[in-house]
Amino acid sequence: MESLLSEIDHVAIAVRDLDAAIAWYEDVFGATVEHRETVESDGVAEALIRVSDSYIQLLTPTRDDSPVAKYLETKGEGLHHIGYRVADCGVALEAVKAAGGRVIDAAPRPGSRGTLVAFVHPKTSFGTLIELVQERP
Question: What superfamily would CATH give domain 5-134?
Fold first, then answer.
């Protein structure tokens, strides 16, 4: 079977202060933000820092009921999830379901940068929240 995962899209890090996190990456590594966006549907603001063909995604909540706000409240700042690029988010999501996996999104939905995304529950994937990411033309 050919892998449905083509590469790592991003590693997401939950932070309380997005500007301070961006400044740290700039000061320490000379990194620059390639893309910044607020994703209202998820209640987050993000900054993407390119690392080769992938990103570090810095996330902060924009409202108290967002999943990232709840994460910060219970676990504090740190690694939130990993995003894998897939050719077809729907196919990858169905593969997870067919294998008996638990999913957060029943179907792919719009993500940042014009992508399609779907999340796999960490109880299915050995404690790691996984985001399936399909880039659209």
Answer: 2,3-Dihydroxybiphenyl 1,2-Dioxygenase, domain 1 (3.10.180.10)
Q: Which segments of the chain does DSSP mark as H helices, in order?
A: 18-29, 67-75, 89-98
Domain ranges for the chain, please list them.
5-134
Amino acid letter, residue 22 = I
Give residues with Cβ within 8 angstroms of 125, minimum separation 6. Answer: 101
pLDDT in tens, 125-135: 999 999 999 99
Asked if 30 and 72 count as a contact pair (C-beta separation under 8 A), the reply is no
Q: Characterise 18 by phi-psi region: left (phi > 0), alpha (psi -120 to 50), beta (else).
A: alpha
The count of residues in the chain is 137
Q: What is the pTM of this model?
A: 0.94
Digit-coded pLDDT (tens) for 82-94:
999 999 999 999 9
* Spatial distance between the Cα atoms of 107 and 137, rounded to a whole number of angstroms: 19
Contact predicate 62/69, CB 8 Å: no
Residues whose CB falls within 8 Å of the CB of residue 135, separated by 6 or more in sequence, listed in order: 85, 113, 114, 115
